[in-house]
Amino acid sequence: KALNLYSNHTFIDLLVACGKMTKQRVNTLEATSASDGEQKYKMRTISRAPGQNFSFMILFFGAGVLLGGTWSRLSLLMNPNCATFPNARHVGSAPTADHEKVMAVQEKSTESAAMAVDETAEKSSLRGYSGTGAFPIAWLMSFPNSGTSYTGHLVMRSTGQNTASNYGGEGMGNDGVSLPVNNESPEGPYWVHPDVEHLVRPKSGYLLTKTHCGGYCNEEPHVCSPHWYIMNERMFSHHCLSGENVTIHANGTQSMIPVTYSKDLVARAVHLIRDPFDNIVSRFHLAYKHLVSSNGTETIDNMYPRSREGFRAFCKDMGERHYLEEESSMFYVAVFEFVKNVPCHADFFRYIQWHNLAFATTWDLGIPTMVINYENYTNNFDETKERLLKFLDQEARYEPPPFEDGKTYREYFNEDEIMAVSTMFSQLAIGKTWNHTKHYFPQ
């Protein structure tokens, strides 16, 4: 069933099987690249749980048949030290040589859990815009409500230059239509403020371009069941390249057309990460706004006020709505029992999946990636700003906008719930996701 669910680049089934492993040792097949280009296999011993033979076969047979890649690729996607919490990061299979190379890059690129630039950023031969051809873009990749707006505003205010977005409806011109950055790519991305005179269009460097990719369920969380948000890497990366173009037809009507641009335009990525507890509560506040706009403030305030109680009531209703689907989903099997009572546990699942897939996507594209943790704007603002602009190959010309510390919402959860979320991360997060989020959990 797992093999038939998704076509190529199957991802989540690897995580599920990985999350169910413990210290028992069993043999499995390891893919190696032969000189003729075909995949060969040899036996290797790894850690796993008893009674999970079928899931284990899915993991490696699916990886060999569907991914068709080398072991180094599988090593990135899998949590390199998967086992049962609390020792999930200390017990695991003996790594191959390729695996060790991948982990060496991970470790070097995550010396600072708060902010880092991948190894590839130092070695890349990619260059910024030279004034001819398509403008190279740097994705601003973010799980919604994790600092997207401020980061874009920071770059605009500091440089006096415009930025871009996949979503043409966010920055239409005075004529009411989206203006593409590149004439050669009407599918996007689009200028955020195309007609603002004091914002010039960059003539060098990399153009910061907003994308939320997919799998986050922003607009209508109350109808967001697992089959809407669980996706593989190919689907996710397609969403990263997709957006909307606002156009006006000959009859004067305005419409929003789904579009997708070429991955060849993408040269770099800035990956934002926020404390998951703060991020999930902030997303409740966004859901609150959507619900108020369609139902009225009084109605929603009676149901889900903007408070700890309102958040927990909202999460309870969402959990009950999708309980049976989640309980029966193969993707929740490793974690459902201990997170089912955590408020908005499905959004934590989406958060983990999103960051897993974001790291896998930038790895696949082979692009330099800078990771910024949201709290770094508070703890180390000047260095964060300078490294960001250097990464974009842009110069600071003006004073940056002030950063207002976001509220923290750890008190919305009790200790048991925090530990359950920590366990969920230990089971489902790949190595890079864990390296950039583990400082948010009790050690």
Q: Can you tell me about this structure?
A:
The chain is built from 19 helices and eleven strands. The chain is α/β, with parallel strands linked by helices and 443 residues long. The protein has a seven-stranded mixed beta sheet, with helices on both faces. Helix 2 (12-19) packs antiparallel against helix 3, helix 9 crosses helix 15 and helix 15 (345-365) runs parallel beside helix 18 (415-428). The chain is globular and about 55 Å long. It starts with a helix and ends in a 6-residue tail after the last helix.
Quick overview:
The chain is an alpha/beta fold and about 450 residues long. The chain contains 19 helices and eleven strands. β1 and β2 (about 40-45) form a beta hairpin.
